[in-house]
Every structure is written in C-alpha cells, then in structure tokens.
C-alpha cells in the first residue's frame, strides 16, 4: 500500500498546474490568432477570412479530420499505431449512409457507422495485439481491404436502386440542425459592422452556435470527453501507462492486452463516426473515395498536436480553415495568408536569433522575404496551388513543430506478457 501511495502522490500534483498553464496557453493562442486574422482582414480586404460562413465550412472540413485524429490518439496512447484509420472511416461512410437511407434515420446510420468502425478496430487489434503483426502492415492491409470490400457491397446492394450504383449510395436523410436562439439576431449587426476583432469575434460566435448539425456538436464534444477520460480518470492513467511502459503497467496488475483492445476498438469507432459525418452530414450520400486520405491527415493532426486532444483540435482546425478558404474564396483568399505567414516567419526568425540559432534565423528570414515578394507581386494564387494549400500548411506546421514532439514511449512496439 505504501508503495502505491508513493507512486501516486508525485503524479497527482503536476497535472493540475500543467493543465492550468495549458488552458491559458490555448486562450492566449486563440486571442493571438483572432487578432492576427482580424488585422489581416482589414489590410487585405478579404472579409471571408473571418465571416460566419467560413467558420461553418471550417467545421465541416475539420470535424472528420479531428475524429480520425482522436482515433489515432486513443490507439497510440495505448501503444498501437493505427494506420488503418482510413479504412475504418470508409467502413463508417458506407454503413452510415446505407443504414441511414434504408431506415430513414440518421441516428441509426450513426450507430451502424460507429459499430462498423469498431469492427475494423477489432480486426486491427487482433492482428497487432494478439498475433503481433507489424502495425503499419496491418493498417495498410485494412485500408486496401475495406476499399475493395465496400465497392463489392455497393455493387451487391445498389445495383438495382435508382440513383445509386457501384460507387455511390442513394441520398441519406440529414441530422437535425441546432442553433442557439437569438445569437444571430443579437450579434449579426456587430459582425456586419466590420469593427476589427469585435466584429470578427461576433462572426466566430455566430458560426459556432448557429445552423450546426447535431453530429457536429457530438463530434466537438468528443474532444473534451477524450481529455477527461484519458487524463482525469484512473482508467485513462492505466491506458496511457500501457502505451508508455507496458512491462511496468503489467507489474502493477494492469491487463495490458485488454486495454490495448479497448483503445484500438474505440479508435475505430471514432474513425467510423468521422466516416458517418462525411457521408451523412457533409454530402448526404456515400461516394467511393470520399474519405480522400483524411485518415492519414488525421494522424498528421494528431502528431502536430503532440498526442494531446487540444493540440490535435488545432491541427484539424488549421487544415479545415485553409480548405474552407480555398473552397469559398479560391486563390485570392489563400493569397492573403501569404502575408500572415511571412510575418510569422519573421517573428520566428527573431526568436531564433534570441536563442542563438543563427542558421535557422537566416533561413526563416529568407523565406519570409520571398513570401513578401510573392505577395506584393501577385494578386492571387494559381488554382492548382490553392487546392493543395491545406496539405502544404499541414506539412509546414509539422516541420516547425517537429522538435517539440514527444510520442508515447511504447508506441509501435510489439509486446508480449511476461507470463506467456
């Protein structure tokens, strides 16, 4: 008993202080981003940078990525790499759309899509945990298998259905939309005023409180729920210990295999929910290939977020925001971000000078100057480049944040119980 108390007492204090600092950092970062975008809107005249429509579109693009990232977080915190998120999302798209259409209820479609994703997670857990198959090999195999299996099911089920076929389903019924009453009426004039920061904040509030799908709200709530479960409960502590040091966890009586199975199955369920969102909310139809690599992008968002729920939400939001801008504003809206990126790189260069890293400072300054020249000598980005701006932004941020990343110590490693 005394040994258990000695282990738990030093662990209990730091998270509270660390959590408080994390909240303030997130709030400070949110404020800085809002001020920066408000200033950029005023300078460039691109009002869609912060309007309510852009916020809603950002959520539409960010939510499936965030759900895939949460799925990756659950699996990797238990030590299992889940490259198969893409295949589990495909399962969610097909079964979610099929059951929503066939029953007329999007909620039944949601349950079916989540269960299908969990089945994919179970398959990955059996392969990696029980049979010690390489995590990457198993995940890639699941992605390939599910893509072909869903096409086969489409041919089998939709062959004689009007408006459907081998690559798409009939239209599925939508989830109900939710809005906070009175928000749009009260804040609409403030948002329309164009007052820097104040008007932008009003647009943001309108965007996140009006005309939201019920599944969007549920998906957003999954982020704080994941944080509370994994970081504020004994269950979460044991699950994370399995991903850090399974031998130590086993020596303390933690059933390592059980926790790995639970984590990977939940991972698949979250990915399946992301697939349901794509099929029922974003398009109201299943289409072959509609996941578009979002399972992989979700893993990138998870890595960018340093295996933390708040960080991965920011990564998903970054991708969703740049994608929303290029959809709504095209090359002109993305072109405005070049100015912001140049200023950020100049600030990073100054910081590197203070840290006595002259090489990085020079590289950052040169990149900033090139971006400024690009911005002032052009009016818009080519359409082809604007289309891939979300991927470019993700890679850029990952490269800047790579030195501060710390994955779980036991992630990706094969493990066998000492008693076996």
Provide an overview of this structure.
- The protein has 420 residues and is mainly alpha-helical.
- It contains 17 helices and two strands.
- It has helices at 2-44, 52-77, 85-103, 106-130, 135-158, 183-193, 198-209, 214-232, 234-244, 246-251, 256-282, 294-304, 309-328, 330-354, 358-377, 383-387, 389-401, and strands at residues 177-178, 212-213.
- It has a two-stranded antiparallel ribbon.
- It is globular, with a radius of gyration of 23 Å.
- 42% of the residues are buried.
- Residues 1-17 have low confidence and may be disordered.
User: Strand sequence of the main sheet, in spatial order?
Assistant: 1-2
**Structural class designation:** mainly alpha
Radius of gyration: 23 Å
Shape: globular
What's the topology here?
Blueprint: H1 2-44, H2 52-77, H3 85-103, H4 106-130, H5 135-158, E1 177-178, H6 183-193, H7 198-209, E2 212-213, H8 214-232, H9 234-244, H10 246-251, H11 256-282, H12 294-304, H13 309-328, H14 330-354, H15 358-377, H16 383-387, H17 389-401
Antiparallel strand pairs: 1-2
């Amino acid at each position: 008993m005394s040994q258990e108390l000695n282990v738990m007492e030093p662990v209990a204090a730091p998270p509270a202080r660390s959590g408080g600092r994390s909240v303030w950092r997130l709030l400070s970062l949110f404020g800085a981003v809002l001020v920066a975008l408000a200033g950029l809107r005023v300078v460039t005249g691109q009002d869609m940078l912060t309007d309510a429509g852009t916020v809603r579109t950002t959520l539409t693009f960010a939510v499936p990525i965030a759900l895939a990232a949460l799925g990756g977080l659950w699996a990797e915190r238990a030590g299992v790499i889940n490259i198969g998120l893409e295949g589990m999302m495909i399962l969610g798209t097909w079964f979610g759309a099929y059951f929503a259409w066939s029953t007329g209820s999007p909620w039944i479609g949601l349950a079916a899509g989540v269960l299908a994703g969990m089945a994919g997670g179970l398959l990955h857990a059996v392969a990696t945990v029980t049979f010690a198959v390489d995590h990457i090999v198993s995940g890639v195999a699941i992605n390939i298998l599910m893509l072909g299996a869903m096409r086969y099911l489409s041919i089998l089920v939709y062959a004689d259905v009007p408006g459907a076929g081998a690559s798409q389903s009939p239209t599925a019924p939508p989830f109900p939309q939710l809005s906070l009453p009175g928000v749009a009426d009260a804040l609409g004039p403030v948002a329309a005023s164009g007052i820097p920061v104040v008007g932008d904040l009003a647009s943001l509030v309108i965007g996140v409180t009006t005309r939201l799908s019920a599944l969007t709200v549920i998906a957003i709530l999954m982020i704080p729920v994941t944080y509370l479960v994994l970081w504020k409960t004994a269950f979460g502590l044991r699950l994370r210990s399995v991903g850090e040091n399974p031998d130590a966890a086993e020596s303390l009586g933690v059933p390592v295999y059980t926790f790995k199975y639970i984590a990977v199955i939940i991972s698949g369920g979250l990915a399946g929910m992301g697939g349901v969102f794509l099929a029922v909310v974003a398009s109201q139809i299943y289409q072959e290939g509609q996941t578009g690599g979002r399972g992989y992008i979700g893993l990138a968002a998870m890595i960018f977020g340093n295996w933390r729920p708040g960080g991965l939400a920011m990564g998903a939001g970054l991708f969703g925001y740049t994608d929303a801008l290029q959809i709504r504003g095209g090359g002109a809206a993305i072109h405005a971000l070049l100015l912001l990126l140049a200023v950020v790189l100049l600030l990073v260069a100054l910081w590197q000078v203070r840290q006595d890293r002259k090489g990085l400072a020079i590289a950052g300054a040169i990149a900033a100057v090139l971006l400024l020249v690009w911005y002032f000598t052009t009016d818009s980005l080519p359409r082809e480049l604007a289309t891939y701006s979300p991927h470019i932004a993700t890679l850029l941020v990952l490269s800047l944040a790579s030195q501060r990343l710390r994955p779980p110590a036991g992630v990706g490693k094969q493990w066998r119980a000492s008693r076996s």
